[in-house]
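Tokens as discussed.
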């Protein structure tokens, strides 16, 4: 197979030689073969990227000073350039992280342009000034301003969609961005940079600096950065929050999860199975909001365990580029080891493995683990408490709704979740009591119009919706005197 190799970095609106000869090599988690390479950004490259973003932001005639409609017109061209590369973007993501191709086409190929258009429109429609009649006389005139240079750090699991949760509102608001993709998924980020260059984004508005955690930490701490937007693990999020706390630097954190799907006693199991797949095993179990705890009423526990076991067994495991594949490999050998460690822990703590737990016998290469279901455990089990980030479910029984709610809320995390019932209002009422940033009824979709984010160890702040735009804006109040 031919590899995809880049030799330059996208900095300051142009492809430029990197400061060092270090490279990042990417391999396919399905074949374990090399698929491409890019230069690794060094501290000097970050300095150049931040300086370029700073210049672009501070230019009095530059990006941040443009009318929102002017930025929207250019972001529309960017969206079109992305769309013309959508199939290749999906293919590259699938090649690098094992995401099933049909999912990559939706999340990675399609969603970025949707987000660019949503935020361009939102910004164009937003009133430039809000005036509030003062309680103490006078008027408060309130305006919003782009926050400045954004340091964006993203993970490998859904790399392009997560990138655009940050890029789309930041660019629409008039910020400039230095983006650090994860080392596992760089080839899609470089294709995205090609789209930005083809669209003619002004120099310095977007800069891409691939690297590992040290480079991420260097960017987060850089004196030229005004705001940090991070998606990744809770452990890294805590370190980044410490840095930003010391610097008093605004921050948005989208972190880990251990969400619960609550199946009520009147759930139509048969009709729900396809959607249940979408909230449990999607992307090989590597999505932060997945419902990896399934809470089942005791009256229907055996039936639900059997249905989920059958579901797990029915999923085609294999080549992520095959459109029939439902479960691809985990992203790396290290991630598979971690997942297998949790499976061993689940067994040693006495949970009953109903299916999976092993590598598929028919696949010779790749970091695959069969979809796995644990039953006969309670919410104190390690596999029910910690984020596994693999296709592993825990099915936990409950006696009544009060106990279901208590179990759902007994978690360090609070990011996603779902409630399943024939009675939508009954489910919605229970859903509203779950301590979580988002939760679905009989399905789960991150709709662009609504805020997405977590409580507790799942993060700080919100992406999506107008709130996702406000995260890249400062407020300024001018007090006008009475009778002005
Ligand atoms: P990770 O935290 O190891 O890495 C994420 C990114 O942060 C990578 O680009 C990495 O290089 C960088 N990084 C790591 N440590 C850093 C540091 N100290 N300073 C600066 N940058 C640093 O996470 P991962 O294993 O790549 O991703 C999986 C995790 O991401 C899971 O916990 C998952 O739940 C979480 N996630 C959350 C969301 C969300 O929206 N809440 C979405 C996707 C993934």
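Sequence:
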């Amino acid at each position: 197979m031919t590899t995809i190799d880049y030799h330059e970095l996208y900095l300051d609106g142009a492809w430029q030689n990197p400061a060092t000869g270090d490279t990042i090599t990417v391999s396919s988690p399905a074949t374990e073969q090399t698929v491409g390479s890019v230069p690794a950004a060094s501290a000097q490259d970050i300095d150049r990227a931040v300086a370029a973003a700073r210049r672009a932001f501070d230019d009095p005639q530059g990006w941040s000073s443009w009318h929102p409609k002017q930025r929207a017109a250019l972001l529309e061209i960017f969206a079109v350039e992305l769309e013309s590369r959508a199939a290749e973007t999906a293919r590259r993501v699938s090649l690098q992280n094992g995401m099933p191709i049909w999912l990559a086409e939706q999340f990675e190929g399609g969603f970025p342009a949707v987000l660019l258009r949503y935020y361009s429109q939102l910004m164009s429609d937003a009133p430039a000034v809000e005036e509030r009649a003062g309680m103490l006389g006078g008027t408060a005139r309130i305006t919003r301003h782009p926050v400045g240079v954004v340091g964006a750090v993203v993970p490998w699991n859904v790399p392009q969609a997560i990138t655009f949760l940050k890029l789309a509102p930041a660019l629409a608001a008039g910020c400039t961005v230095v983006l650090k993709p994860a080392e596992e998924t760089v080839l899609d980020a470089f294709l995205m940079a090609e789209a930005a260059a083809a669209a003619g984004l002004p120099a310095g508005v977007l800069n891409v600096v691939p690297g590992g955690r040290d480079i991420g930490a260097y960017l987060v701490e850089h004196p030229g950065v005004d705001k940090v937007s991070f998606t990744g693990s809770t452990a890294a999020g805590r370190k980044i929050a410490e840095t930003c706390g010391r610097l008093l630097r605004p921050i948005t954190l989208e972190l880990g999860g251990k969400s619960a799907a609550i199946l009520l006693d009147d759930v139509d199991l048969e009709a729900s199975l396809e959607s249940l797949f979408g909230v449990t095993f999607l992307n090989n179990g590597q999505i932060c909001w997945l419902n990896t705890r399934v809470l089942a009423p005791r009256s229907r526990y055996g039936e639900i365990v059997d249905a989920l076991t059958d579901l797990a067994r029915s999923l085609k495991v294999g080549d992520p580029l095959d459109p029939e594949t439902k479960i691809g490999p985990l992203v790396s050998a290290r991630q598979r080891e971690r997942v297998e460690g949790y499976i061993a822990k689940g067994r040693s703590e006495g949970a009953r493995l109903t299916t999976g737990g092993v590598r598929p016998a028919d696949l010779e290469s790749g970091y695959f683990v069969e979809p796995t279901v644990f039953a006969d455990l309670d919410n104190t089990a390690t596999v029910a408490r910690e984020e596994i980030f693999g296709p592993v479910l825990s099915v936990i029984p409950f006696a009544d709704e009060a106990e279901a709610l208590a179990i759902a809320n007994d978690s360090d995390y609070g990011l996603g979740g779902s409630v399943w019932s024939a009675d939508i209002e009954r489910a919605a009422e229970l859903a509203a009591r779950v301590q979580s940033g988002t939760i679905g009824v009989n399905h789960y979709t991150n709709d662009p119009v609504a805020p997405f984010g977590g409580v507790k160890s799942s993060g700080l702040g919100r992406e999506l919706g107008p709130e996702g735009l406000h995260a890249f804006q400062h407020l300024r109040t001018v007090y006008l005197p009475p009778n002005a």
